[in-house]
Queue: 2 jobs
Job 1
Amino acid sequence: MSPQEIAQLLKDQFGDRITGEALDVLDPWIAVAPEALHEVMEFLRNDERLAMDFLHCVSGVDYFEPDPKKAKRAKFEPHMEVLYHLSSMKHGHRIVIKVFLPRWKNDRPGELPEVPSVADIWPTANWHEREVYDLMGIRFVGHPDLRRILCPEDWVGHPLRKDYEFPDEYHGIRAR
Amino acid sequence: MVTETRAGTGQAEQAEREYLWTLNFGPQHPATHTTLRIVLTLDGERVVDAVPDIGYLHSGFEKLGEHLDYNQYVVVTDRMNYISPLANNIAWHCAVEKLLGIELTPRCKYIRTILAELARISDHLLCVGAAALDLGAMTAFLYAFNQRELLYEIFELVCGARFTTSYTRVGGLMYDVDERFIARVREFIKQFPAAHANITRLLNRNRIFIDRTKGIGVLSREDAINLGCTGPVARASGVTRDLRKDEPYLAYADFDFKVVCMKEGDCYARYLVRMAEMLESLKIVEQAIENLPPGPVNVDVGTRVVLPEKPKVYTTIEGLIQQFEVIMSNRGFETPVEECYGAIESPNGELGFYIVADGSDVAYRARCRPPSFIHFAVFPYLIRGHMVSDVVAVLGSLNIIAAELDR
């Protein structure tokens, strides 16, 4: 199925909960409202015509320019994205599902943005989501075991956020 | 009678739980090869549950990707996988070239294909040899390393380093290969089947090896797909997926080779798949080296993204200007404001890079999808119900590379 057909199918099924699309880029993507993500993913996985049984990767991206001088010239509004690269073993087509999130929940710094977990649809998402949580600071609601995975459990902050400040020391170890 | 009535279900469960004990496996253990830790819950010698704990080798490679330009980052990809660094170099630049829309020259494609396949052979040799070593078979490991030594010499010949190859560049390669390379590869092709047969004879019908691996760590086809497995691990479970065939990149469409699959999904099947894949890789290398096209290895200098060859830099003004334009940090080359996910079939499975470009010569985000990360998440599913000594058998068959696992 072509990306256009997939996008049309999703729009017919979910209406305005499909919030955006870009189909003529290198990897065509479809944006989904965070609250509808779990439902859309379940449809993508279980519908016979789509059968997206393979989740390649869950990645987070932080769009933010920490330098206030450069921020005015930045080509994007500050936000975060979670991407799901999906493909179907059966049909051989692929698509990217995107979720746009604010950098902080309710714009209150320190409150992590939330997105539903898909670990119950694809078990492989379990570790991917833990990694995104650890490095990007996005909370996956409904995840069975949301702990830090790469950083130590007592680490402060989320290193891949663009405004992350590297700590001076960690347990008496000089870090810079 | 009294005790029976008193012992309610809660107490019985507690007694059951007290029976279990916890064993810490790693982070320093000869069979983990590098640093990874597993917390095992045991019932006697039987593994009830395993909780992998990773991050001991976390080096912030993805963060580094936001500071190094597309040519510099290739150095980091070496460090990500010290067993087959060339495959990682190629994976990174395949993703970058997809982003920039560069079509490589035929000669470059062929050389990259040859080196990717040699890297696959060296990776599988280590995996097979070390898996056998962990189970007590020393000789197979030595046979395997003997062959790896020959491959290292070939890698050293093309790029001057044995491990940290950093051989690819945007739109081409560091250097072209010469006649000596071709002669060495031909020599390798000639003698490798004998060494392969030696390992086969030692292990394939070895009673101890079969007892230790057959029926251990069984992964069904459905689980393999749901858990995101790729590469030999998935193919040993009957998933007929190989990016070299399904979405041919580089020059794979030109060659005749088979995708090796098995149905059993146990450690022995994964071993057999790797052994058979080595011979298929050798077939590809043989076809490629005999049909190596002439011509340049780098795309045309006019495209303004590729580093010129060193003689050109020293003798022509165009070459010098080009070198300056690409290297200088305030100039660099321009990229489209786009994002892409590029993946190749690395020896361990699908190795993908998701790159977000913001127009400068440095990636805005360089996400890596390492196969080891996904395969290690599968480990608890494979080991439940088996003996504690099977932990090393399963680990060996998954070929976990901690540097790639933790990045």
Job 2
Amino acid sequence: MGPGGMVPGGMVPGGMVPGGMVPGGTEPRWPDDGRATSGADPAALHRRLSEQVAWHHVVTHELTTPLTAVRELLRILEEELVGPLVAQQHDVLRAALESTETLVGYVDELFDSMSADQASARLELTAVDLGTVVQDVVAKLRQPGQHGGTDVYAVVSPNLPAVVADRLRIEHVLRNLLVQTTRAVPKGSRVCVVACAHAPRTTVAGDRPTAVLVAVHESGTTTGRGGPLDLAFDAAAARVADGALRGGIGLGASLCRELVERMGGQIVSASRPGHGGLFCFTLPVAAAGQAGSRPGSTTCRGR
Amino acid sequence: MSKILIVEDDKNILKALVIRLRARGYELATAQDVQSALDVAAAEPPDLVLMDISLPSGNGFEVLRALRAEPALRDVQTVFVTASRRPGLRERANELGAAGFFEKPFEATELLDCIDAALRSATVHEPAPRGNESR
């Protein structure tokens, strides 16, 4: 797949999802965004959600602080900044650090859960330029203090149609997928975010894309190439969203799927030995009049 | 040797930062709340303040604003760290001219690199003359 054009479903062996990741020829499925609010007093609901979000902030803050201290002090020991260690002590420290990293992952998941209630609230669906969202999220992750050691970059196709989405929520989804990917890859890896137009397998020349696809993909290391993106797409095609994202990869991913599906999209994940992992999701193109398009392609490269 | 003031209320994170920065060769001062941060900074003006945002009886932004109000400290470099992920904190730090912003748990190598770079920048660039104070 080249970054510059539409991705017909037929170019993805087997299709993204059986039956088509983006149902061909059908209207995008609009989410039922009233399920959490029906019958509730909106002010009371808003107050309750605000209280819950504030509570989560406090809990995660209180967890993160000691966790930061534990990890830093263990690393200081491992780096022998306060004296030499014997091999067995290094082994013990490595085990402790491994468990600490696991805890860090759980705290990240807890942060993600802060959005769980928000996900149940009403979505603010508007026409969104997904290419800009991709670039913004990637730019934030490239700032110091964010996932050091991983080269994160974006490749955005030109003239992407606007999609129907809640911008804040989709930023959350993309950030979560990027965090999960960067957390899973070794330092020095490259992680690519591709945004391109997507059409069903039945596309013929001249058809308009029905969705925009965003793929988060480990694309190799800064010193070598990873597996072709098409292979990862192939692997993704073998796993529908239900199988891929339910269970095993965390609360954050479950929330991502809920959000994407409620915006009328689909999300899949896959991994292939030697070729890294892949998350991708689609969002439906906005109706004419809502849509805006981007004037040109932009690639931003990380460190 | 550059002097760094570390403002961090968690004593164990403070200890880790002291070990790392001392190993880097910096002269250090520490404070664990807003008032002591202001007192220490006034007594021993630092070249850089490494500051937690959430502090007892205040926050790091208040400290930075107070430092900026002091002629001797207004150009001090500042790097923020925070355990909070409330939206807008990074933007506020940028607006105040911070040299860096790190979420906990931070990567120490990145934090140290940022501190080194901020101090090099402060050394290379002479303080702006009065009347030309844009950052």
